[in-house]
């Protein structure tokens, strides 16, 4: 069965179903403090500023987390509201919605294993918050998102100011804001309320509902973003903007898919090609920062793991937690095991080194293969897919150029810098990595201590996070027009 037929039925949410503010035929926006007349001066000036907003030179989104911090999960710090407060959200390129845990949430966690104090967003405490209602009932617009690992979020929509670090010079940023519609999460399930939970999740998918699309449609940014996940010190670089250095080869994004899909041509282990996808057929591969491990169909994974372990014939591996193939090893992984290279259309290649496809388990000297069979998922839709998550995307610069519908991939030192071009002035500015969000001086406010560095991923934590969105429902007691987006 065609993968796309199966997999993609996300519902378009925000921009289709309602139009913000005055004159927007479909949905009326009500201010939480009452009528238009009650609008504060501040609110008005913000409104004007937004209306005259110009293209931002680039947006630097500080990120933390990652293998080094023991989470296998990358998160960003984002300011919301007026006065603004900081929220720590999972960064996910496999889904579109942006939501945070909301004040009415009864079961939301208050602290996470990452040592981050969690908070609940309160629209009533933000002068700039607006509730979003749907016609004809004028009830709040509700949303629901279900992720590939079965976790979900339900709530209602709000719009508020979201604060960014706008790139303003070499290694310099200034604060900028934009009005963004997002979900106020009332009930979350699965990993989203576990000990690995954070304040919410920001989806960097391409649909019109994502924050990126909202920023782009307000003319603030071009639809180009990039990440470089630092496997050594955690965090890395996550930016919206035009990367000019390093330069990269690019591979086409498959059109009309709801994830970032590219075509894999072959897989090479050392000098041997082990999987050659027939010309023109190509193997669809999803690039997904919200998933920790990599998933391959059994027909590819089996020969791949045989080739990997063939170089260490005497190694005895054991199945740990019924899930991971693990072994004890006290020598250099990179000396002992081969590099695996994924070749994509247009000669773009992704070299994955042993220290990135194995991860350290929580006892010393124990490593496990970070690759799994796609058939592990309940979703039949992914059984034939390759999904590349954080582990293999670590220490790579991944550029998503949606303007030109291409994806760039290259090795990069994610503790170093990249250069962004300001589309308006033509200036080129360096942007540096962030590693420890609690110590970065962005968005004001008291420091929140971060977790002590741990070098190992731990099972039962986010190792299994799989945040591709498969079903993004939007139900609004059927008052709100909603559209199901089928990609065929
Ligand atoms: C993708 O969608 C657009 C707009 O709906 C359509 O014009 C285009 O032909 C589609 N492309 C493919 C390859 O299906
Ligand atoms: C594997 O074990 C055999 C027998 O103990 C030994 O002769 C051989 O050198 C070992 N191979 C490696 C790669 O360690
Ligand atoms: C990566 O960049 C950082 C910062 O510039 C530098 O200290 C480090 O040595 C670099 N690492 C490698 C492997 O080149
Ligand atoms: C992050 O920075 C804070 C404050 O500067 C410090 O206490 C903490 O140990 C740092 N954490 C890591 C993982 O480096």
Describe the structure.
This protein is mainly beta and about 500 residues long. Helix content is about 10%, strand content about 40%. The protein is built from eight helices and 35 strands. The strands form four sheets. Strands 18, 19, 20, 21, 24, 25, 28 and 29 form an eight-stranded mixed β-sheet that branches. Strand 32 and strand 33 form a beta hairpin. The chain is globular and about 65 Å long. It binds 2-acetamido-2-deoxy-beta-D-glucopyranose (4 copies). One 2-acetamido-2-deoxy-beta-D-glucopyranose binds near residues 313 and 314. Keywords: Aspartyl protease, Glycoprotein, Hydrolase, Membrane, Protease, Signal, Transmembrane, Transmembrane helix.
Question: What's the short version?
Answer:
With 488 residues, the chain is mainly beta. Helix content is 11%, strand content 38%.
Strand percentage, roughly?
A: 35-45%
Bound molecules: 2-acetamido-2-deoxy-beta-D-glucopyranose
Task: State the distance separating the first and last CA atoms.
Answer: 11 Å
Determine the number of helices (DSSP H or I, runs of at least 4 residues): 8
Global outline: globular
Gyration radius (Cα, Å) is: 22 Å
Transmembrane segments: 465-487
Domain Peptidase A1: 74-410
Keywords: Aspartyl protease, Glycoprotein, Hydrolase, Membrane, Protease, Signal, Transmembrane, Transmembrane helix
Protein name: Peptidase A1 domain-containing protein
């Amino acid at each position: 069965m065609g993968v796309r037929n199966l997999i993609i039925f996300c519902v378009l949410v925000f921009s289709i179903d309602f139009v913000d503010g005055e004159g927007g035929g479909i949905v009326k926006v009500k201010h939480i403090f009452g009528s238009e007349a009650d609008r504060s001066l501040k609110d008005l000036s913000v409104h004007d500023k937004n209306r005259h907003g110009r293209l931002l030179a680039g947006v630097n989104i500080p990120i933390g987390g990652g293998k080094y911090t023991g989470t296998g999960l990358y998160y960003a710090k984002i300011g919301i509201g007026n006065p603004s407060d900081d929220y720590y959200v999972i960064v996910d390129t496999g889904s579109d919605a942006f939501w945070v845990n909301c004040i009415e949430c009864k079961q939301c966690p208050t602290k996470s294993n990452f040592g981050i104090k969690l908070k609940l967003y309160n629209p009533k405490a933000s002068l700039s918050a607006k509730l979003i209602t749907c016609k004809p009932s004028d009830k709040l617009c509700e949303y629901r998102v279900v992720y590939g690992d079965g976790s979900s979020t339900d709530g209602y929509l709000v719009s508020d100011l979201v604060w960014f670090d706008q790139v303003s010079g070499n290694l310099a940023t200034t604060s900028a804001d934009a009005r963004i519609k997002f979900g106020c999460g009332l009930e979350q399930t699965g990993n989203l309320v576990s000990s690995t939970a954070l304040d919410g999740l920001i989806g960097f998918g391409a649909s019109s509902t994502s924050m990126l699309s909202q920023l782009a449609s307000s003319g603030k940014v071009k639809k180009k973003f990039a990440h470089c996940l630092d496997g050594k010190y955690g965090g890395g670089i996550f930016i919206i903007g035009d990367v000019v250095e390093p330069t990269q080869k690019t591979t086409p994004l498959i059109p009309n898919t709801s994830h970032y899909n590219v075509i894999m041509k072959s897989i090479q282990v050392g000098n041997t090609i082990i999987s050659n996808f027939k010309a023109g057929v190509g193997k669809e591969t999803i690039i997904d920062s919200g998933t920790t491990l990599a998933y391959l169909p059994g027909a590819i994974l089996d020969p791949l793991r045989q080739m990997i372990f063939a170089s260490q014939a005497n190694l005895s591996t054991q199945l740990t937690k019924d899930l991971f193939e693990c072994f004890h090893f006290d020598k250099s992984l990179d000396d002992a095991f081969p590099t695996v290279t994924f070749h994509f259309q247009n000669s773009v290649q992704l070299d994955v080194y042993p220290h990135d496809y194995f991860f350290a388990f929580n006892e010393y000297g124990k490593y496990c293969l970070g690759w799994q069979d796609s058939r592990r998922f309940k979703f039949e839709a992914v059984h034939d897919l390759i999904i590349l998550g954080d582990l293999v995307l670590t220490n790579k610069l991944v550029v998503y150029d949606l303007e030109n519908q291409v994806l760039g991939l290259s090795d990069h030192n994610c503790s170093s810098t990249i250069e962004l071009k300001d589309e308006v002035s033509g200036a080129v500015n360096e942007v540096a990595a962030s590693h420890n969000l609690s110590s970065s001086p962005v968005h004001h406010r008291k420091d929140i201590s971060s977790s002590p560095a741990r070098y190992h991923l731990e099972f039962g934590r986010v190792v299994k996070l799989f945040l591709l969105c498969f079903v993004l429902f939007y139900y609004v007691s059927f008052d709100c027009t909603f559209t199901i987006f089928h990609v065929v």
